[in-house]
Design a protein that fits this description.
Structural class: alpha/beta
Shape: globular
Oligomer: single chain
Number of helices: 6
Radius of gyration: 16 Å
Largest sheet: 8 strands, mixed
Strand order of the largest sheet: 1-2-4-3-5-6-7-8
């Protein structure tokens, strides 16, 4: 099939979530993005990573996990962006939609989580182990996944900036909970947002390799 791209609306529970769907011809897998606190599906960093994944034959779904009304509330209170349980339930619903509606065909599903989105991605993965084949966390807070961490059975790559010392420590603790399914890699010279030249490109390349190797 030809390349497909466009905005779709995904029903999850009682909300309709807007998502940007991009599918290369004959995708080898599809990666669902979970953005970090205060960000959206238009996050330039996640869009850049998605572009690299497309080059490896992976479809991508960049989605807003809050409805427009919830987003207005969160803009004032900042309370929903840290509701890991809510965000994880939304991700689980989108995973189910991908598995049932199959917009990318019958292909394996991966999750890419940034910051707090990584915690939500891991909680969702623990509840959908039969449907998620690989996870990548960028500068994530996997520690916020709590007890769900020990229940993850899916290959999980933790990518952290070498200058993001506090988050490195939190990821090391999370790695101990993940056990043999987890791997921690540090990107030298990178801070939390990977704004230094070449560092986000390293994230994208390592994520692409992780997904294409494990989404089989």
């Amino acid at each position: 099939m030809d390349e497909q791209r466009g905005t779709v609306t995904i029903p999850v529970g009682d909300v309709q979530l807007p998502a940007d769907l991009m599918l290369p011809p004959q995708p080898v897998g599809v990666v669902l993005f979970a953005h970090g606190s205060g960000s959206s599906r238009h996050s330039p960093r996640n869009v850049a990573v998605a572009r690299t994944l497309h080059g490896r034959g992976l479809g991508t779904v960049l989605v807003d996990l809050l409805s427009p009304a919830e987003d207005e509330v969160d803009a004032r209170t900042a309370e929903l962006r840290f509701d890991i349980g809510l965000l994880a339930s939304r991700l689980a619903g989108i995973i189910d939609w991908l598995a049932v509606e199959r917009p990318a065909g019958d292909v394996p599903i991966g999750l890419f989580g940034a910051s707090t989105g990584a915690a939500a991605a891991l909680v969702a993965t623990a509840s959908r182990a039969d449907r998620v084949g690989a996870v990548v966390s960028r500068g994530g807070r996997p520690d916020l996944a709590g007890a769900a961490l020990a229940q993850v059975r899916t290959p999980t790559l933790l990518l952290v900036g070498g200058l993001d010392e506090e988050v490195i420590t939190l990821n090391e603790r999370a790695l101990a909970e993940l056990g043999e399914v987890g791997e921690l890699r540090v990107i030298p010279g990178a801070t939390h947002l990977f704004e230094e030249p070449g560092t986000l490109e390293q994230v994208a390349e390592q994520a692409g390799e992780w997904f294409t190797t494990r989404l089989r």
